[in-house]
Design goal:
Blueprint: E1 2-7, E2 17-18, H1 19-22, H2 27-39, E3 42-47, E4 51-54, E5 58-59, H3 71-88, E6 95-99, H4 102-105, E7 114-116
Length: 129
């Protein structure tokens, strides 16, 4: 199975809605989501507040980012995400497609076997598949 992991964004809708809609104010998220729909079987958003969020989960807007957290807080966050990933995927067999910045995947990568970073080194204008 191919699982896309997208990162949350600072630009959000102001109302409670599905995660895929909440972040749709961000052009970067919209492009990542479009790519994820083309290449993945499942899509999750890595939320600084909520952790691993299914694309259709209803969540409230918030103002939080991993970039503002300490290394220890990011490590604790990653452990929570990994525990949630274990419940919905096979960390050894599934392929994880990261559409994230380094701070969102740095503590996850060492625990996963099959990784793909399709946008690594590309500018946003090159993100369109």
């Amino acid at each position: 199975m191919r699982i896309a992991l997208l990162q949350c964004t600072s630009r959000k809708k102001s109302n409670k809605c599905q995660a895929s809609e909440l972040y749709s104010e961000s052009p970067r998220f919209r492009l990542s989501y479009t790519l994820a729909k083309l290449v993945a079987n499942k899509i999750y958003i890595l939320s600084a507040k909520y952790g691993l969020v299914p694309e259709n989960m209803i969540i409230e807007p918030y103002n939080e980012t991993l970039k503002d957290k300490s290394a220890l807080e990011r490590l604790v966050w990653a452990e929570k995400v990994l525990n949630d990933l274990r419940n919905v995927s096979d960390l050894e067999c599934d392929e994880f497609i990261f559409l994230t910045s380094e701070v969102y995947h740095e503590n996850l990568v060492p625990h996963l076997s099959h990784l793909w970073f399709p946008l690594k080194g590309k500018r946003q204008g090159e993100w369109i598949p």
